[in-house]
Amino acid sequence: MGKKLFCLLSLLTGLYTKPLFAQNKIVYGIGLGLFQTKLNHVDREHFSGYGYSAPGFVQNDRPGFAVHLLAAKSITKNISFETGLGVSNFRSQFHFDKLQNVNRPAPPTLDIALYYLSVPLMFNYKIPLNRTAAFDVSLGPDIRCLLLGNDNYQEIIEEDIYLEGVRNYKQLIISPQLAFGYSFRFNNDSRLRLAGNIGLDAQKAMRVKGVMSGWGFYSNLSTAYYTYYGLSINYFFNCKPGLG
């Protein structure tokens, strides 16, 4: 009798612990995001009169991208925590309509390209639609550390001043994100998610300290921060139900 009870207990334990361990398994994936950036709150009221800090510029918001290696772990049946490591790119462009040099063939353009090491920290809530499909809501911050802040400001200004090497861009950005997506689980337990997302940087893009780093049009950018919206596609390998 005791042996039969032990066998029954073992069977029931096996039936219930297998899904539990499957939910606690860490799964890995890859992600790609394409988004439209917008540099908000550029100072259009205060101008120094040098270094193209003058009325009359046109802002051109540029698209960006992000590529990540991802990891996800289930917390409950429908909630998982997702993180990863990747690279993201934010770009901006400004056209100045006033020529300081009559020999210049076209008005100058300021191009800004920022490359960040990106670590998303997202909580994902899954709403099952059927056995293979689900609606997803994700919320959390994206932590970005500046790898390269590049612009051509030194090349386009007419003033005789040396600005190369001046660190003008913030090294650390915390950016809350919200995403709504649709995910589908394949027969091999991998999962594909398509999502639309929006984000808002909690810090300014520029770091203005001292006369040199806040010189000219840099001072007009010192009040600006990024927002962005776009689409992402994430693919998780060997993703059991309850994850991804």
Features:
244 residues; mainly beta; eight-stranded antiparallel barrel; 4 helices; disordered N terminus
What oligomeric state do the depicted chains represent? single chain
Spans of 5+ residues with little confidence (pLDDT < 50)?
1-23
Give the count of helical stretches: 4
Global morphology: elongated
- Following the backbone from N to C, one meets helices and strands in this order, namely HEEEEEEHEEHHE
Walkthrough of the structure:
The chain is built from 4 helices and 9 strands; from the N terminus they run αββββββαββααβ. The protein is mainly β and 244 residues long.
Q: Can you describe this structure in just a few lines?
A:
By secondary structure, the chain is mostly beta strands. It contains 4 helices and 9 strands. The protein has an 8-stranded antiparallel barrel.
Ordered list of secondary-structure elements with their pairings:
Elements: H1 2-24, E1 26-40, E2 57-61, E3 63-74, E4 79-96, E5 109-128, E6 133-151, H2 153-156, E7 172-185, E8 191-200, H3 210-213, H4 217-221, E9 225-236
Antiparallel strand pairs: 1-3, 1-9, 2-4, 3-4, 4-5, 5-6, 6-7, 7-8, 8-9
